[in-house]
Amino acid sequence: MTTIERPAAPDSPAADGSPTAAGSGSAATAAFAGHRFTADTSPERLSAIASEAFAGFSALIDKHEITYDEYRVLKQWLIDVGEGGEWPLLLDVFVEHDIEEVNSRKYQGTKGSIEGPYYLPDSPLLPARCTLPMRSVDARETPFVMHGQVTDLDGSPMAGATIEIWHADAEGYYSGFAPHLPAWNLRGTVVTDGQGRYEITTIQPAPYQIPTDGPTGKFIETAGWHPWRPAHLHLRVSAKGRHPIVTQLYFAGGDWLDSDVASATKPELLLDPKPDEDGRNVVQYDFALDPE
Ligand code: DHB
Ligand code: FE
Predict the structure, then answer these.
(1) Is residue 12 pLDDT above 50, yes or no?
(2) pTM for the structure as a whole
(3) Radius of gyration for the alpha carbons in the chain, expressed in angstroms and rounded
(4) Residues 130, 186 contacting (CB under 8 angstroms)
């Protein structure tokens, strides 16, 4: 029998007072809902897409002979997803990778990947050689240094390009979405130097588990799937007159690379850092940006 357990209220801290991952999900909803988006979709296009979506549901219901009990569990669970503020999380995990793939087909530069629910614009500006803001507890993790150059497709350097970077701490929390973290922890907007070069020091991220305490996590558990994403860095690289790229970088040999719950890895986005004499893991990665 399948019952998807009703999760605890999202913004209440866990009984021991620690932050909850579901709290991060509802913070992501609040951030997203603060802005109204528009798309220039014609009524005909909307109608075609919606009809095909419902036809897809019809075919599924018919093929699996979906029962009334299953239909009611689905309805209940969708209500939980909304009340738990997990629509951004659910959609970014299970849908965004296809949207990204389709929309990046015409570009030749650095590969993109999903943005996910935890991007924040306007992070603090940092010079080309910098260390991301972090707490002393973060600084105990293995130091990680990424350096390289931002160019156009012909290899001409892009001076003054910006590399927005954000990643989770060792516990999987993103600043701005978890109240116990200082603002802008492990985030920054790095400006490349006159040769388009940069060198960012941060800490090596750990694999990330999408919240297991909310409705998305309950569903994943009930279906017998796993909630893990491989360790990753998020980046948004922009330069004047160039198409900005939103991407993620992963670590060769790490766990969950072949079974990312968000299906967002690509072979071109694998880093293979090597330790230097100071024990810092160091890697070069260059970004090539398409024209606008
Ligand atoms: C989710 C979180 C991430 O950090 C990410 O990169 C993609 C998806 C999520 O929880 O939905
Ligand atoms: Fe992420």
Answers:
(1) no
(2) 0.91
(3) 21
(4) no
